[in-house]
């Protein structure tokens, strides 16, 4: 687990990703073990890999997949006691003419 964390931190630290053949050297880890860890991280959706040529050799550029923050504070979706109307809505959607959405937006504008 310690190796996996180190590898993930290395990948995350590179804005433009890191080549797989640099990764195992920088992590000071066996190439095959590094490859297994990278496979696992890719399956878990933590990283993606794109094939790339480096000095005539085929390797992969590995990048961390940024996760969008989920809304943790549901109060942000509330206006008075009205939850954001689009959440879970299955009505025929015409936002410009939607009464629930209009009421929610007016409530939002009237909040202090
Ligand atoms: S705009 Fe209105 S109809 Fe469209 S998803 Fe939101 S609440 Fe539903």
TrEMBL record:
- Domain (B-block binding subunit of TFIIIC) spans 7-62
Pfam families, per database record: B-block_TFIIIC
Q: What SUPFAM superfamilies would the database entry show? A: Winged helix' DNA-binding domain
> Could you tell me which InterPro entries the record lists for this protein?
TFIIIC_Bblock-bd (IPR007309), WH-like_DNA-bd_sf (IPR036388), WH_DNA-bd_sf (IPR036390)
Name of protein: B-block binding subunit of TFIIIC
Source organism? Candidatus Methanoperedens nitratireducens
Q: Print the organism lineage.
A: Archaea, Methanobacteriati, Methanobacteriota, Stenosarchaea group, Methanomicrobia
């Amino acid at each position: 687990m310690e190796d996996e964390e180190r590898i993930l931190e290395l990948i995350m630290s590179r804005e433009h990703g890191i080549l797989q053949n640099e990764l195992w050297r920088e992590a000071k880890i066996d190439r095959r073990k590094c490859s297994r860890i990278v496979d696992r991280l890719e399956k878990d959706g933590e990283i993606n890999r794109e094939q790339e040529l480096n000095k005539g050799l085929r390797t992969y550029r590995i990048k961390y997949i940024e996760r969008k923050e989920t809304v943790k504070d549901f109060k942000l979706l509330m206006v008075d006691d009205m939850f954001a109307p689009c959440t879970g809505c299955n009505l025929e959607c015409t936002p410009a003419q939607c009464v629930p959405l209009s009421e929610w937006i007016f409530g939002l504008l009237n909040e202090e």
